[in-house]
Each structure stands twice: as C-alpha cells, then as structure tokens.
Design goal:
Blueprint lengths: L2 E2 L4 H17 L12 E9 L5 E9 L2 E8 L2 E5 L3 H14 L12 H16 L22 H21 L4 H15 L7 H8 L4 H9 L1 H10 L15 H9 L2 H4 L6 H23 L10 H14 L14
Antiparallel strand pairs: 1-2, 2-3, 3-4, 4-5
Length: about 325
C-alpha cells in the first residue's frame, strides 16, 4: 500500500543531502550559500513496491533548483514554479495517500512517539510532534547481552587511560591497565578511538572524546540494569558509581539486559533530544531545557549501537 512519507525525516534528510551534495559537486552552489538554504517538498511517498517517489524545491537567495525521486533515483529537473505546482496537484489527485496526514507507523511506534513528546513538553524541550521514531519492536533486535557486557568492561579501563593522558601519565596508566586489557582479550571489542589510545597512536582529540565516553559507558550500564535511570541528560554521569560498577565486578555478573521495548523507548527519547539540540542551533526560539548536548550525543551513541549491527559506534550517523 502506498504511504505518505511527509513526516519521515529520515527519508527526507537522505534526499536533501543527496540533492545538496549534487549541487555542490557540480559547483551550482557554494558552501557559503548553504546558510540561506531552504527546502520544500511538494510530496514524498513510498509506493506499493517500497520505492520512493518525491518532488522538492531547493532554494538559496536568488537561486531555485528542482529535484524528483523516481524509482529511488534522484533526478535534477528543468522546471519553473508553475510546472512544479502543476505536478504537485496532479500527483495529489492520482495518489490518495498524499491527501492523508496519517503517519506510517505501528501502534507501538505511535505510543512511543506520543509518550516521549509529552515528556519533552513537560520538561520545556522543543519537540516536533510528527517526528517519527526510527526503530520498531518487530524488526530491530538488541545485541547479545554478553557482547554489551564485554564492550562496557573493556571500555572502562581505556577511558581511565584517556583521562590520564591529560595528566601526562600515559605510560604509567598503560602499565597498570594494559595487562588488564590483555587478560580480557579486549582488542576485538575496541572501537577505532580506543585502539589508538591503547596502541599509542592517539591524538589529543581522541583523548578528549574518550573522556566524554564516560557517558556512553553510563548508557551501557543502564541497558544492563546497573543504573536506574538516564532520562535526565542535564548532568554528567555519577563517576563514583561508574567506577564502582567496574571495580566491584558488576559488569560481569550483576544486572540483566533490559527489555527491548524499554531500550527503544529510551533511544527514541534521545533521538528527540538530538533533534531539539540541532533545532536550537538554527532556531533561536527552540528550547532544550537543561540538556547537556555532549551527554545526549554520547549516550545516544551507545543506545543506538545496542540496536545496530555496526561494530564501531563512531561509524554511526547520529542524525535527527
């Protein structure tokens, strides 16, 4: 069945990125002109076979470009406004789904969206009422609990090493934590930044990023039931508790992986936090309450990794 995708930001963002990328590659736009960029979709829908059809108008001051998507392929069009609106009217007449405002979501997704939007509103955070959740209970699977535990276990000592870099104690820190990592067989569980910390090829930015990875570690601990709640993304994690979890062996033998629906609820909430943060950068009227953007991004990175098949979570595109 055809479905109107007017509220599907994931699909629309992919189309916009491809359109703007093509204009930049062909030197029809400059980077400086992007500050005045506006994009308007005449329509976007998925056909019975799942392929996307769309028509959009890309504007910058004194320039207008038109694009269509047919059979999932992006095309540059030679149109003017009269023909653009004519095509839009014709397609709305031919495809009844375009006359519907119903979101293409499951009942579980709708409940998740509405619940999290209420929470954001109650906490003074700007929300997009029709921002669709990107995950669903039927098709998304959690990683094995053992993999999540091992990931948290090996990242904690690397975080400590990264923190010691700022104190110029890298050598001493590696002498202490290196054997521990070796006993864990850690290398296969490390991501790209962590590997550079361990093998000594790191940059100072890697060390800074790994310091913030405390928040990613905290989110994994929540997934494993070792932390009560992470909804409040205004304050950094409880470092004493974070250390205690690792020191006392809780990562290996305590807690249990939370229910998939509960993890998807939290991931969707952090997805909406991310949207609010990005919106506030472009819209001075948008509010983010007490959100700490760095906490939001790092915790979402871990939550999204738990429901992904991506080995290195720095390869995840944390879009809103």
């Amino acid at each position: 069945m055809e479905q109107n995708q007017k509220y599907n930001n994931q699909i629309k963002n992919a189309i916009v990125n491809a359109s703007v990328g093509g204009l930049l590659d062909n030197q029809l736009l400059t980077e400086d002109e992007l500050s005045g960029l506006e994009v308007h979709f005449a329509y976007v829908f998925s056909r019975d076979d799942g392929k996307i059809e769309a028509l959009l108008r890309v504007e910058v001051p004194e320039k207008v470009f038109y694009f269509a998507v047919q059979d999932d392929k992006l095309q540059f069009l030679d149109l003017d406004d009269e023909r653009y609106f004519g095509v839009m009217q014709y397609m709305e007449e031919q495809h009844p789904c375009l006359q519907s405002d119903e979101l293409p979501e499951t009942p579980a997704q709708k409940e998740r969206r509405e619940k999290n939007n209420r929470y954001l509103t109650e906490n003074g955070i700007t929300t997009a009422e029709h921002l669709m959740t990107r995950w669903d209970d039927e098709n998304d699977e959690l990683l094995d609990e053992g993999i999540i535990r091992k990931r948290a276990m090996v990242m904690f000592p690397v975080i400590q090493i990264a923190c010691d870099i700022a104190q110029d104690n890298y050598k001493e820190s590696m002498e202490f934590f290196g054997p521990m990592l070796g006993e864990m067989g850690a290398m296969e569980y490390l991501n790209s930044k962590e590997r550079r910390i361990v093998d000594g090829s790191y940059t100072m930015q890697d060390a800074i990023d790994m310091d913030w990875a405390y928040e990613s570690y905290w989110a994994l601990c929540w997934c494993l039931g070792l932390v009560d709640d992470i909804k409040d993304a205004g304050d950094t994690c409880d470092c004493e508790r974070a250390i205690e979890i690792a020191r006392d062996g809780e990562l290996a033998e305590k807690g249990a992986l939370r229910d998939k629906a509960e993890i998807l609820d939290m991931l969707d909430l952090y997805f909406r936090y991310t949207w609010a943060i990005y919106e506030a950068r472009a819209n001075q009227d948008a509010e983010i309450g007490n959100l700490n953007p760095s906490c939001v991004i790092e915790r979402r990175r871990a939550l999204e990794w738990v429901v992904s098949q991506v080995e290195d979570w720095y390869d995840l595109a944390l879009q809103a």
